[in-house]
Amino acid sequence: QVQLVESGGGLVQPGGSLRLSCAASGFTFSTIAMRWYRQAPGNERELVATISSDGDSTDYVDSVKGRFTISRDNAKNTVYLQMNSLKFEDTAVYYCRTWGLIRGRRYWGQGTQVTVSS
User: Fold this and answer.
1) What letter does residue 116 receive in the DSSP assignment?
2) Distance from C-alpha of 21 to C-alpha of 77, rounded to nearest angstrom
3) CA–CA dist 16, 90 (Å, integer)
4) CB of 32 closer than 8 Å to CB of 2
5) Which of 26, 51, 91, 113 could pair with 2 as two cysteines, CB 3.0-4.6 Å apart?
6) Whole-angstrom Cα distance, residue 81 to residue 60?
């Protein structure tokens, strides 16, 4: 079955960095575009970044442009989110999601908590 397992979250000071990973299994990873989302308490889930299946195309929400980088390693079935210059407002649970359809649906990971605090 399809599984997405995020890791790499934690507590970081403002200005710090974290790299999130999302390990995928149960489908042909190299054929599926992937996304990272985040959800802060009391807020709706927000799209953060998208990467094409081959990694050649990426897109970001304006609030993270220049600070976050989405990438993927199709040999490792893993998508990453490098987060630099973190701000208080980046605090959220971060989720990866398949964006391409797999047997007619998209899948979510369980999420990883990122807390930016001094």
Assistant:
1) E
2) 10
3) 11
4) no
5) 26
6) 11
52, 41 Cβ separation under 8 angstroms: no
**Whole-number Å distance between alpha carbons of 37 and 82:** 13
SS3 per-residue string spanning 48-112? EEEECCCCCCEEECHHHCCCEEEEEECCCCEEEEEECCCCHHHCEEEEEEECCCECCECCECCCE
**Residue 85: CB atoms within 10 Å:** 13
Predicted confidence (pLDDT) per residue in 48-70, tens digit: 999 999 999 999 999 999 999 99
Residue 29 in 3-state DSSP? Answer: helix
Look up residue 32 and give its DSSP letter. Answer: S
* pLDDT tens-digit map of 62-105: 999 999 999 999 999 999 999 999 999 999 999 999 998 898 99
